[in-house]
Amino acid sequence: MQACDYCGVPIIGSRCANMHCNQSQKPKFFTPAPARRKTTHLRKKTPGPQPQDDGSYLIPSNIHLEKEDSLPKHFGYKTDKKSTEEGRHSTLLLLYESTLVVHPGARNRSSIAEFGPPSSPQRKTKILSWMDGRIAKSKRPNLKSSLDKLQADRAFVVDEFQ
Q1: Within this chain, do residues 135 and 94 fall inside the same structural domain, yes or no?
Q2: pLDDT tens-digit profile, the chain (162 residues)
Q3: Which of 17, 36, 68, 88 is the most exposed place for a label (fewest CB within 10 A)?
Q4: Cα dist. 150→75, 153, 156, 160 in Å?
């Protein structure tokens, strides 16, 4: 095993294993950093809805604010190629029936309050309003599949939610 010329501690990889060794700050050879490609700002991914002991769902303070994830998306609602009708409907039903809890000082308190109490006409109206906004944004030809799923799911909400 190779030892550090400065302190005598074994070399691991190309560095001295002694973190207090002056030589450990200097790599034996230069490895260029990988090239960085330009990326757009990525949103932080949230872990999804986290049920509390009482069955309510604690909503993070960044959910349902402008340029952040929507509440339906946070609950897992998607209209991508992998989504199934059953999965989308169960997600919408969970959102409709769940008690939503937000911290008292959270920035999204008023936007989450717009969803109203669980299983209420106010919650149904807010979900439909959110879907109408998504439908309006999905008019491009490459989003036809997503638009079809949104429209079918909207009809599901109208018919099934009291």
Answers
A1: yes
A2: 787 766 777 877 777 777 666 654 444 455 556 666 665 555 555 567 878 889 899 998 889 887 788 999 999 999 998 999 999 999 999 999 999 999 888 899 999 999 999 999 999 999 999 999 999 888 788 888 899 999 999 999 999 998
A3: 36
A4: 16, 5, 10, 15
Task: Indicate the pTM of the whole model.
Answer: 0.69
SS (H, E, C) the chain: CCECCCCCCEEECCEECCCCCHHHHCCCCCCCCCCCCCCCCCCCCCCCCEECCCCCEECCCCCCCCCCCCHHHHCCCCCCCCCCHHHHHHHHHHHHHCCEECCCCCCCHHHHHCCCCCCCHHHHHHHHHHHHHHHHHCCCHHHHHHHHHHHHHHHHHHHHCC
Asked whether 119 and 127 are in contact (CB, 8 A), the reply is no
Contact 96, 124 (CB under 8 A): yes
Q: Which domain holds residue 10?
A: 1-27
Residue 130 included in any domain:
yes
Q: Quote the number of domains for the chain.
A: 2
